[in-house]
Amino acid sequence: MLRGKTVLLGVTGSIAAYKIASLASSLMKKSADVHVIMTPNATQFITPVTFETLTGNKCLVDTFDRGFTFEVEHVALARKADLVMIAPASADVIGKLAHGIADDMLTTTVLACTCPKYVAPAMNTHMFRQSIVQENLETLKRHGWEVISPSVGRLACGDVGEGKMPEPEVLLSYIEKELAFEKDFLGKKVLVTAGPTQESIDPVRFITNHSSGKMGYAIARMAMLRGAEVTLVSGPVHLTPPPFVEMVPVTSAKDMYEAVTSRSPEMDVIIKAAAVADFRPRTVSEDKVKKGDGMMSIPLEPTDDILKYLGEHKKPGQVLCGFSMETKDLIENSRKKLEKKNLDLIAANNLKVEGAGFAADTNVLTLITAQEEVSLPLMSKEDAATELLNRVIKMM
User: Fold this and answer.
1) Which domains does the chain have, with CATH numbers?
2) What is the pLDDT of residues 265-302, one digit of tens each?
3) 59 tagged catalytic
4) Cα separations (Å) of 144 from 97, 147, 160, 271, 292?
């Protein structure tokens, strides 16, 4: 995902410095070219050898180290970097960068960088809250830096409050958001539905389906990485929400219908990947519920048809995509749904194909429009989401 991208990590004197080894390792697994610059104080918490072993590149500390190739090292690395992240960032280095002070290898290099720059403060709560530190962070923001808010929790000093460096996976998500994909969806508003809905029978039982939400969550994440402003309307699932996405949790089909239809007029793209329950128990008095042989017969009524409403109220230029899950006559039934619901695209999913379906991390889709049918091979749901979004962007 980050192949061909150069990430420069700046590590300063903080107990959180050891966590950046995990970030460097994760970036290498994503095929990034990772370079690390440490302040002298940072070397008291973790050694340069650790980063050199993980990245395969020399870890820079001393501005006047004579072990370089013959070039102005800090300028050469600044030109090469696609992104700079200083994490953990001490109050000292934040203050230097905010006022253009370059007195070590890290500040000298970073001030020569023209790429996107991120800073993740990590320090004692009271130090972080000092007005001068906050002013320095605001100064960095004014000069184009993105400041990653620290986490709240128990600090190494024993205090409890804000000041913890976010976990490496959070820092990685910022880097991926910036570098992973071309931002061809920038400025587009995308709404994705995911997961199942639940229709209550009584306070204990409900009707639902086997949807895991994985496909919808993958679509939301990939659209975000391509620059879209994403809203994810999700039924009850056991998944970690994708970062930088507006989450709208819902339970019933009615909840999802209201959440989607109220937001649909402002959306450029709507992708309904949720497996909404088709029926809900009809409200009846207890004496109308049929019982026999230990079984209950509960009267049902159809739930609201979200795609039907969206197709009937589609605004000019809006792209509407649905999913079709079939066990037979895949193409024929999916094309009927495409036409009946006034969709631009439908992703047909044959539940009998190995590797496709709800709970798997892979899928097998056929993407159908009025003009074509594209059968995708077995692939990860994120790759399938990418292929689907490739078709969507061509329609816009």
Assistant:
1) 6-179 (3.40.50.1950), 189-394 (3.40.50.10300)
2) 999 999 999 888 777 887 655 545 555 555 567 778 88
3) no
4) 12, 10, 30, 33, 70
368: left (phi over 0), alpha (psi -120 to 50) or beta: beta
**Tens-digit pLDDT profile for residues 366-394:** 999 999 999 999 999 999 999 999 999 99
Closest CA to 59 of 42, 79, 80: 42
**Rounded CA gap, 153 and 151, in Å?**
7
Q: Rounded CA gap, 34 and 16, in Å?
A: 19
| Cα–Cα nearest to 54, from 40, 39, 35, 77 | 35
Residues 6 or more apart whose CB falls under 8 angstroms from that of 378 comprise: 354, 355, 356, 362, 363, 364
| CA-closest candidate to residue 156, choices 125, 130, 186 | 125
* Assessment of whether the complete model's pTM goes beyond 0.85: yes
Catalytic residue among 59, 113, 157, 321: 157
Determine the Cα–Cα distance for residues 222 and 186; give it in Å rounded to an integer: 12
